[in-house]
Amino acid sequence: MSAPKKVVLAYSGGLDTSIILKWLQVEYGCEVVTFTADLGQGEELDPARKKAELLGIKPENIYIRDLREEFVRDFVAPMFRANAVYEGLYLLGTSIARPLISKHLVEIARATGADAVAHGATGKGNDQVRFELAAYALEPDIKVIAPWREWDLSSRTRLIEWAEQHQVPVPKDKRGEAPFSVDANLLHTSSEGKVLEDPAEAAPDYVYQRTVSPEDAPDQPEFIEIDFKKGDPVAINGEAMSPATILETLNEYGRKHGVGRLDLVEGRYVGMKSRGIYETPGGTIWLEAHRGIESITLDRGAAHLKDELMPRYAELIYFGYWYSPEREMLQALIDQSQQHVTGTVRLKLYKGSVSTVGRWSAHSLYSEQHVTFEEDAGAYDQKDAAGFIKINALRLRLLAMRDKRLAGESVSTDIVSDEGLTRFD
User: Fold this and answer.
1) Annotated catalytic, 364?
2) What is the pTM of this model?
3) How many CA atoms, within 13 angstroms, populate the side-chain half-sphere of residue 179?
4) Most CB within 10 Å of its CB: which of 59, 106, 376, 408?
5) Mind listing the pLDDT tens digit for each residue in 232-253?
6) Same domain, yes or no: 236 and 209
7) Residue 335 annotated to the active site
8) Pick from 286, 301, 279: nearest CA to 356
9) Where are the beta strands (DSSP E) in 110-260?
10) Is residue 256 part of a domain?
């Protein structure tokens, strides 16, 4: 790959991406544009601007964008319409943020005339794949620079030494080994590495940053109601809110009650397994509520088909194929299924758990008249079930009769004559 002339760097303002910024300037002698995304990670972003200026970036080449509403509206919400979880547990908090960051990296590259983008993902993880697949899908000729795959700064000591040699400010708290690494956005926090690398050892309490311990949560349950419209939450306790505000509010409920903690060993796309501690308080509540409203508004066939497709959909997001045609095809199917997923769900939050305790909708398929154990006024004739069962049992009875015949046992002729069963003998 020829040396880039201008690079747009996904820049957090932290030590690692600050070293990458300087490394790009030193290694390639190129102009660097920084992009810092506000995804609701809960950090002040102005220090990132000041750090970039300190490292020689022109003010007009520093981009900071508030993407919280876009993140929840265009990425989190479509994903949760599918009830997507990876390997049955992970709510994809890091995975779903990467295609949005890549989208803006490419947009800024076009706007500034940059010929390359860069990220700080390592060569061992999933994020390098997610960033780059998204970038190439949106701009096939873009150059992608991944310093962790190129440089020889393979230890924390070497990173610090290089930073000091090139006048990159190193905060005092960054000189030692970090106990674990953290990725955060409005949907979740993800903690990995160091003290978490032995999956046999319980995670220390201090790893959890977004939720109280369930043991320390309130001793009384709290009940909330979430209104849905076409598969998306639109109000909490009757108050209409924007998508990002919905998630922020649910995060606070989840934090208070210790909801959404997960200790997971997962299979990375690159092949290895890794252990992570995830906190997804609002997302866990959202997902439970969505399943609650689907239970009375979604037809059985549609619901079961969605559940069959969900693992594939979740895997596409985890592996980085958000912009693939197959994900978009699945999304179209999922969105079609949500046309009547409208109504209200009541939830109980208590000591780390969230459960649906009520649900109602003008679009409901639930008929109390049909399902009641009391008099149903002729809504359902129970005698009809006999023929239904007989027809569905026919193939099973024929299989059993064949097996009995082959075993030399006598065969009933109330389904088919002996001649019909044995004419091929």
Assistant:
1) no
2) 0.93
3) 8
4) 106
5) 999 999 999 999 999 999 999 9
6) yes
7) no
8) 286
9) 116-118, 143-145, 181-184, 189-192, 222-229, 232-236, 239-240
10) yes
Q: Considering only CA atoms, which of 36, 29, 33, 40 is closest in space to residue 13? A: 36
Q: Which domain holds residue 410?
A: 384-422
Q: Please indicate whether residue 16 is annotated as part of the active site.
A: yes
Q: How confident is the model at residue 92 (pLDDT cuts 50, 70, 90)?
A: very high
Residue 333 lies in a domain: no
Catalytic residue among 12, 16, 102, 337: 16
Per-residue pLDDT reduced to its tens digit, 56-80: 999 999 999 999 999 999 999 999 9
Strand ranges across the sheet with 189-192:
181-184, 189-192, 273-279, 261-267
The residues, any chain, with a CB within 8 Å of residue 190's CB and separated by 6 or more, are: 93, 94, 182, 183, 184, 276, 277, 278
**And the tokens for 328?**
């978009």
Is 277 strand, coil or helix? strand
What sign has the CA pseudo-torsion 334, 340, 344, 345?
Answer: negative
How many domains in the chain? 3
What mean pLDDT, rounded, does the chain reach? 93
Same domain, 229 and 192: yes
**Residue 400 and residue 423: Cα distance in Å, rounded?**
17
Mark whether 361 is an active-site residue: no
Annotated catalytic residue, options 38, 127, 227, 232: 127
Q: Are residues 415 and 359 in the same domain?
A: no
Indicate whether 133 and 205 sit together in one domain.
no
